[in-house]
Design a protein that fits this description.
Strand content: 25-35%
Largest sheet: 5 strands, antiparallel
Radius of gyration: 37 Å
Distance between the termini: 126 Å
Structural class: alpha+beta
Helix content: 10-25%
Shape: elongated
Strand order of the largest sheet: 5-6-7-8-9
Number of helices: 6
């Protein structure tokens, strides 16, 4: 039931005559509703999207077309919504096998309930899903993928991680391993996370950055603070602290060792504190994103298990959570770290393009091109977005900016990167150039096959792709499905060209009329032909009799001449 007035009135969105059984589980996220319904001894999934209202359609649940990977009812019971936007959502479903703890990520757009696989083997450990959206940057995602020894046996021995199906080669995986990947198009394509420059760790050699924990804030678009390590997979012990100002496209090494950390003052300051009791460093703060650090004084003895701060507030206030001094001491101490008097100057806005402004316009793709991550201008979700943020070199407090002044979107021509795999298709591997193919056949079904299977007047013939939900590109590469009419399935029969498209102009009634007329013409033609044949036959008979009479006269004249 759905109500907007505290149950004075309500609407039943999923009535009993539509669903096969009782509703077991409901998940609501933004404008998407997912309902798990009992169906005999199994489960069925129904999906509702508020986006249908924009299409002028009546709100209704649609039965989800589940991909081949979903084979057990346990998977639907573990459904989680990872992200939901106006145009689509990403959901997590655990794998059919309970071990290892992992699952797959699927994309579902507002146009229907067809789930498309976008990422396999997302790690789902005891602390939850290893899924890290970069707040403030559309479509930017980081995720940890878990690979077991069984995956290892099915992979080729190759150091190029992006060249194999699972994203990790057998030479890199010896037992359970966790590898961090990043996507900048809402999960369509995933890549390894590059390590900070200056070292010997390179993606082309199978080495990258792997993250155990990360924090971001929408108040500072692109800012990511994380703890992890470089190498071929995530290690049990965290080796360092890393900071990125461009949504994870490039990183800097900030601190060696394991630290608790937090973002505060709308992304202006990052505070860290050592986790190990043997680490002598006091809590520190940086206002320039890791270039310089300031000591904040000593805390009570013992490790810091957590730093708490609200990254979107204007106050630079933090709390350090510390356990008791001994194993037998169950108490926890809370120490305040007040940085509000450390910096009091408010950032000056002015013209964002002027050098005297404390703010700058920043684009993730510009940063990627400058860092050498990509060599050509590309866009995120079909648009080139520029954000406004504080310059790293300016130590000041960010004030609230009008939303219209903090972002500027410019549409881009569509490229191959603006299309994800359609339902029933998947990429051969996680690489950007990997095509979308049907894993069960060499080519997708033809129009004739779809017409025969559906019995519909027209069918949607997929090229293996669909536009990524929320993608704003225009023109350029067009991988959208084509609609074709089924000649033998009624109503539509003849077409005429209009603006380069085939448009129907004769209905089934017209076809029936023409068929009757044609049959009548055939009958009339046959009758006329038969009448003509009869007339010709009579004419031939009359001519034959006249010829016989002539010959009879000639014979009588010959006999008379003989007698004479």
């Amino acid at each position: 039931l759905v109500t907007t007035n505290f149950m004075d009135t309500n609407v039943e969105w999923l009535p009993r005559n539509v669903r096969p059984g009782p509703i077991l589980h409901v998940v609501l996220r933004f404008n998407f509703v997912f309902a798990v319904v009992e169906e005999g001894s199994g489960r069925a999934l129904f999906v509702y999207s508020e986006g249908h209202r924009g299409l002028g359609q009546k709100p209704a649940f649609a039965r989800a077309d589940m991909p081949a990977q979903v084979t057990h009812t346990r998977q639907l019971e573990g459904l989680q919504v990872l992200a939901a936007e106006r145009h689509g959502s990403l959901i997590f479903l655990p794998e059919a096998s309970p071990l290892p703890r992992r699952g797959d990520v699927y994309s579902c757009n507002y146009e229907g309930a067809a789930f498309v696989l976008v990422l396999q083997h997302l790690s789902a450990g005891e602390t939850g899903l290893a899924w890290f959206p970069v707040l403030g940057v559309d479509g930017a995602l980081l995720a940890n993928r878990a690979f077991s020894g069984e995956d290892d046996e099915s992979l080729e021995d190759d150091v190029d991680i992006s060249a194999v199906d699972s994203g990790v080669s057998s030479s890199l995986v010896r037992g359970p391993s966790v590898v961090t990947h990043a996507s900048y198009d809402f999960g369509s394509v995933w890549k390894l996370v590059p390590a900070p420059p200056g070292g010997s760790c390179r993606v082309r050699d199978g080495c990258s950055l792997h993250l155990r924990e990360m924090r971001t804030t929408a108040a500072a678009p692109g800012l990511v603070v994380a703890r992890g390590n470089t190498g071929r997979s995530l290690l049990p012990d965290v080796k360092g602290l890393y900071i990125s100002r461009n949504a994870g496209l490039a990183w800097v090494w900030a601190r060696e060792g394991d630290f608790a950390f937090a973002i505060g003052s709308a992304g202006d300051v990052v505070v860290v504190a050592p986790v190990s009791p043997h680490h002598p460093t006091p809590p520190q703060a940086t206002w320039d994103y890791g270039q310089t650090w300031t000591d904040l004084g000593s805390l009570p003895s013992g490790p810091v298990v957590q730093l708490v701060g609200h990254p979107s507030t204007r106050a630079a206030m933090f709390f350090a959570v510390q356990p008791g001094g001994t194993e037998d001491d169950p108490t926890t101490s809370l120490t305040t770290l007040d940085l509000t008097t450390m910096v009091t100057k408010e950032c000056a806005t002015g013209n964002f393009w002027n050098s005297d402004s404390d703010y700058e316009r920043w684009s993730p793709m510009d940063a990627a091109e400058d860092a050498g991550v990509i060599s050509r201008p590309i866009c995120l979700l079909g648009r080139r977005t520029a954000y406004v943020r504080r310059k790293a070199s300016r130590t000041c407090i960010t004030r609230a900016l009008p939303r219209d002044d903090t972002r500027d979107d410019t549409p881009c021509p569509c490229t191959e990167q603006d299309w994800e795999c359609d339902f029933g298709f998947q990429r051969i591997d996680v690489g950007e150039s990997s095509p979308c193919v049907d894993p069960n056949r060499d080519t997708g079904p033809s129009a004739a096959e779809l017409c025969a299977q559906s019995g519909a007047e027209r069918v949607r013939v997929s090229k293996g792709y669909r536009k990524i939900p929320g993608d704003a590109c225009t023109g350029g590469v067009d991988q959208s499905p084509t609609e074709q009419f089924c000649m033998g399935n009624a109503d539509i029969a003849w077409y005429r060209a209009q603006d380069g498209e085939s448009v129907p102009f004769l209905s089934s009634k017209g076809m029936v009329f023409l068929t009757v007329c044609a049959a009548a013409l055939v009958l009339l033609w046959r009758k006329a032909a038969m009448a003509h044949a009869a007339t010709m036959q009579q004419h031939h008979r009359k001519t034959a009799r006249e010829i016989d009479d002539i010959f009879d006269v000639d014979e009588e004249g010959d006999e008379e001449a003989a007698l004479l």
